[in-house]
Amino acid sequence: MQRWRGLEDIPEDWGRSVVTIGSYDGVHRGHQLILRHAVERARELGVPTVAVTFDPHPSEVLRPGSHPPLLAPHHRRAELMAGLGVDAVLILPFTTEFSRLSPADFVAKVLVDRLHARAVVEGPNFRFGHKAAGDVAFLAEQGKTYDFDVEVVDLFVTGEAGGGQPFSSTMTRRLVTEGDVEGAREILGRPHRVEGVVVRGAQRGRELGFPTANVETLPHTAIPADGVYAGWLHVEGEAMPAAISVGTNPQFDGTERTVEAYAIDRVGLDLYGLHVAVDFLAYVRGQAKFDSLDALLVAIGDDVKRCRELIGAYEGE
Question: Active-site residues: which are they?
Fold first, then answer.
């Protein structure tokens, strides 16, 4: 996959392409419908597929301080898009100046002059340009002028977790924030993931016999509600079943919120300084402060047992 940051990175000899535009945070099942359609259309036409996204999130520029929690960093989005067959990802730096581009100028400068769009594939609620004045109807009119097709993909509707609403990143963020990682998994089509470098913590888990990887998460990461979760710890291509703790560690009167993952039944791991990923499969229990360390150890043992069961059941599906 080719990855470009800014219009100037696009090769000068780039030919026609099928394009789709959006934040694509999380690359959830609704996004996947659009991306798969774009890839299929591109293959029919014999041209590559380009996904266009933005950095930082537009809301941070338009309303400073409102940056939403992110479901996936850009390199993860590109990885997921590549898995769907997308050929190139263009990350456009979203600046105040860029935000002022009219819909017509956006079409001319991005879709026509640089990407040479043959077709543009979007969801029905797609908006673009200054003050989000452009929509799919305007895009279709521009397509008649500049010789590209516009194809709209209706998004499926979520099941019980989403309350019958279309798939959306906003809904997924809410579910993650509430600790409903199972509901988020339903929308994403996979467990929610956080990433970061393993740093040294208080090392209490090691002292208790359950050494954890203390993950320093990336900025703006969407972190689940405080509690214990079952999932996986991904290290250098290996996925290890894990019991994951999110919170301030009230047992020891902690104040800093952390994400810590215990690789179940693994010993001797030295992960300090490594970039790792943590997948959240299922919620186990909320945070609690116990009457004694012995009671805490019993609870941790029960947590690990429950995590094994949940992971095993998921893998057996």
Answer: 260
